[in-house]
Amino acid sequence: MTTVRPLSAVPEQPARRTRWTDAELMAVDFPEPRWAVPGLLCEGLNLLAGAPKLGKSWLSLGLGAAIANGEPALGAIDVERGPVLYCALEDTGRRLQRRRRQMLAHGGRPAPLLTLETACPTMAHGGEALLCEWLEDNPHARLVIIDTFAKMRGADPHGMTQYAADYAAAVRFKALADHYNVPFLLIHHVRKQGADDFQDMVSGTNGLTGAVDATLVLKRTRGQADGVLHVTGRDVEEAEYAMSFDANSGAWTKLDGPAADYQLQDTRALILRFVRDYPGSKPAAIAEALELNPNTVRQTCKRMADKGQLRASAGGTYHPPDSGDSDSPDPELSHLSLCHSTRPDQEKHL
Questions:
Q1: Which residues in the chain belong to E strands, given as ranges?
Q2: Residue 1 — very low, low, confident or very high, per pLDDT cuts 50/70/90?
Q3: What gap in Å lies between CA 300 and CA 123, rounded to an integer?
Q4: Domain spans in the chain, listed from the N-terminal domain onward
């Protein structure tokens, strides 16, 4: 990828049909959408957002290598093998080599169909042509990863509102994804402040999430699951996946069972520890201190009180179980609290 073919040199494809009568539309036999990862990454434009050092780059690199080799993505989802382009625009060749060697040393395999790129101009200054060139050279491409979106979007047009600028920047990638019927994955960041709706955590305006076909947000939990991957989109069903990260192999895997099972256990352990330190707290104060969803904390506190794991008082405050209850605490909760208090902090991941 040392030369960039001008856009005018990219062969044109037949124009897409955009108008039908209702009867014509009902008679059309549309092909099924192409999936890079079934149930997770579909054709079109996908956005993966997460906090810095959470492991987004490890996740995207692992997905790319798995698809390039036709191996189960996240250790659990069967995929179709095919070429993948991974634009690691915040990395150097040395850093990418170190990561791949780490992955290969712990059971990974070389991926001949994985193309790694560390330098790419912005979309308006040659980046679009570079992506077109690779897609033309790889007609059976399965996925294009841009890590990060900010590195390729370029400067916003003068005079645009931020909403319009975000939308326009995403649409340039979406046009390529739709033209070639290849899933694109943009890696992005989340806001510093939390939000009840995970889509509202994506950095930028709603113009960005409105332009993409699917939004994925990776969040770290404080308990058994190293992260929860929230997914929603036009062709993908809304879902949450509990995720685990292996720092030795750099591999993310999807855990069995609903993410809520892992989150609920972790939330109860956190609440119990907080209430022991600050007896008489209300759910709103607990949620704010622990950066948890207020409604989740309110419901969890009530359930814990019903099971004797907390003691509710007048005014909506909660206290640790009284002395009579504390001699025989809930075994499951005690185990979680002990594990949580003794578990060493995990290393932060890129």
A1: 35-37, 41-42, 45-50, 84-88, 114-117, 143-147, 184-189, 214-219, 227-233, 239-246, 251-258, 311-313, 317-319
A2: very low
A3: 47
A4: 32-219, 262-342
CATH entry, 262-342, from 2.40.110.10, 3.30.300.30, 3.90.1750.20, 1.10.10.10: 1.10.10.10
* SS3 state at 311: strand
Contact in structure between 242 and 225 (CB atoms under 8 Å): yes
* SS3 of the chain: helix, strand, coil, percent, to 5: 40, 20, 40
Its pTM stands at 0.74
First to last CA, the chain: 26
Integer Cα distance of 272 and 13 in angstroms: 61
Q: Do the bridges between strand 184-189 and strand 143-147 make them parallel or antiparallel, or are there none, so unpaired?
A: parallel
**Other C-beta atoms within 10 Å of 238: how many?**
11
- Return left, alpha or beta for 156; rule: phi > 0 is left, psi -120 to 50 is alpha, else beta: beta
Res. 270 pLDDT band, cuts 50 70 90: confident
| Phi/psi of residue 176, nearest 5 degrees | -70, -45
Single-letter amino acid, residue 187: I
CATH code given to domain 32-219: 3.40.50.300
Question: Tens of pLDDT along 39-70?
Answer: 999 999 999 999 888 899 999 999 999 999 99
- Cβ-contact 68, 100 below 8 angstroms: no
The phi and psi torsions of 280 (rounded to 5 degrees) equal 85, 15
Say how far apart CA 44 and CA 179 lie, in whole Å.
9
Integer CA distances (angstroms), 147 to 47, 56, 91, in order: 10, 9, 9
Of 28-37, 158-167, 214-223, 266-275, the one with minimum mean pLDDT is: 214-223
Contact criterion met (CB below 8 Å) for 250 and 101: no
